[in-house]
Design a protein that fits this description.
By secondary structure, the chain is an alpha/beta fold. Strand 9 and strand 10 form a beta hairpin. The protein is globular. The relative contact order is 0.17. About 45% of the residues lie in helices and about 20% in strands. The protein has 14 helices and twelve strands. The chain binds pyridoxal-5'-phosphate. Pyridoxal-5'-phosphate binds next to helix 3.
Length: about 325
């Protein structure tokens, strides 16, 4: 199958699997797993933070981050479409009694700071206490500009807020900007990173921050059930991903740009392309037939009125050529 639903569908290749098989392990709850320790040290080094923590999923990493930043009755300001507001089952509210304050993102994926300002609650017992600004980078494939991050950083310092970045795809942003992770991470207190998307690991996320913060986060990780034992087998995949699969994200971006252009040339209504994502407008009546047409031909798509195509290390240019020709045939057959 050619699977363009998400970059989460990537599977570990032979070299990554062999790194996993030969990983040195220990009980990570005792701090004894050398491979986990090495992965956390590497994430801290790359992000320029004092420490990092390995967690099973990005959802749990964001949850632990929020639980660690905000107490019961406090709030975080977050994008209306942000993963850690909309797509994490309300975990911060359910498990932390933390109130989200969603705001609408601008077209470039940033949360306008004048808007954020309006949502910071005054110090008044009627209101929840605003603690945190949470940004997402990339957001729907969009890279937040470094100039914006610098402004958001200065703004949060001024207003006494912490700044978290949900960086599930932060390495896509770093590669698109042609900078190291630290050049982005310097503008936040904490960030999460997914190893299991374009980086190709089967499992795993990282939370990076100050030593004190990560120490506290360890307790929340334990409480939420994320402290694993011989996790070095998984951390080895993460280490492999950080070493071998970061620079190659450029290929995914180039493939997405190629795909957008190729579809456009064949009168497919491409609305935009950013980093490894292409968004296509599909007439309502075509949504289900398109899905079936592609599925019959071995192609999996997240079809909708806006269909998102995500490139990743398991789809090469040839697979995309196949997709384009099937799409063209579909349009001919339908119209
Ligand atoms: C995928 C994703 C996450 C976390 O997802 P998991 O499937 O729990 O690893 C968090 N934030 C964003 C923006 C994501 O795309």
């Amino acid at each position: 199958m050619i699977d363009l639903r998400s970059d989460t569908v990537t599977r570990p290749g032979a070299a990554m699997l062999s790194a996993m098989i030969s990983a040195e392990t220990g009980d990570d709850v005792y701090g004894d797993d050398p491979t986990v320790n090495a992965l956390e040290a590497e994430a801290a080094r790359l992000s320029g933070k004092e420490a990092a923590l390995f967690l099973p999923t990005g959802t749990q990493a964001n949850l632990v981050a929020l639980l660690c930043h905000c107490q019961r009755g406090e709030e975080y300001i977050v994008g209306q479409q942000a993963h850690n507001y909309k797509y994490e089952a309300g975990g911060a509210a359910v498990l932390g009694s933390i109130q989200p304050q969603p705001v609408t993102a601008a077209a470039d994926g940033t949360l306008p700071l004048d808007l954020v300002e309006q949502f910071i609650k005054p110090d008044d017992f009627h209101f929840a206490i605003t603690r945190l600004l949470s940004l997402e980078n990339t957001h729907n494939g969009k890279v937040l500009p470094l100039s914006y991050l610098a402004e958001a950083w200065a703004f949060t310092r001024q207003r006494g807020l912490a700044l978290h970045i949900d960086g599930a795809r932060i390495f896509n942003a770093a590669v698109a900007l042609n900078v190291g992770l630290e050049a982005i991470a310097r503008y936040c207190d904490t960030l999460t990173i997914c190893l299991s998307k374009g980086l190709g690991a089967p499992v795993g996320s990282l939370l990076c921050g100050s030593a004190d913060y990560i120490q506290r986060a360890r307790r929340w990780r334990k409480m939420t059930g994320g402290a694993m034992r011989q996790a070095g087998i998984l951390a080895a995949a993460g280490r492999y991903a950080l070493e071998h699969n970061v620079a190659r994200l450029q290929e995914d971006h180039d493939n997405a740009a190629w795909l957008a252009e190729a579809l456009q040339k064949r009168d497919v209504n491409v609305s935009r392309q950013d980093t490894n994502m292409v968004f296509v407008r599909v007439p309502e009546a075509d949504v289900a037939p398109l899905k079936a047409w592609m599925h019959e031909r071995g192609i999996l798509l997240s079809t909708g009125p806006v269909t998102r195509l995500v490139t990743h290390l398991d789809v090469d240019r040839q697979a995309l050529e196949t997709l384009v020709s099937h799409w063209q045939a579909f349009l001919r057959a339908r119209h």
